[in-house]
Amino acid sequence: MRLKQQVMAKPVPKHIAIILDGNGRWAKRRNLPRHAGHKQGAINLQKITLEAHQLGIRFLSVYAFSTENWRRPKEEIDYLMNLPKIFEEEYKDNFKEYDIRVVFSGRRDRISQANLDLMQRVEEKTKDRKGLTLNVCLDYGSHDEITRAAKKVAEDVLNGQLTLASINEDVFASRLYTRDLPDVDLLIRTSGEVRLSNFLLWQVAYAEFYFTKVLWPSFSAKHLYKAIKHYQKRHRKFGGLKE
Ligand code: IPE
Ligand code: IPE
Ligand code: MG
Question: pTM of the prediction?
Answer without folding.
Answer: 0.97
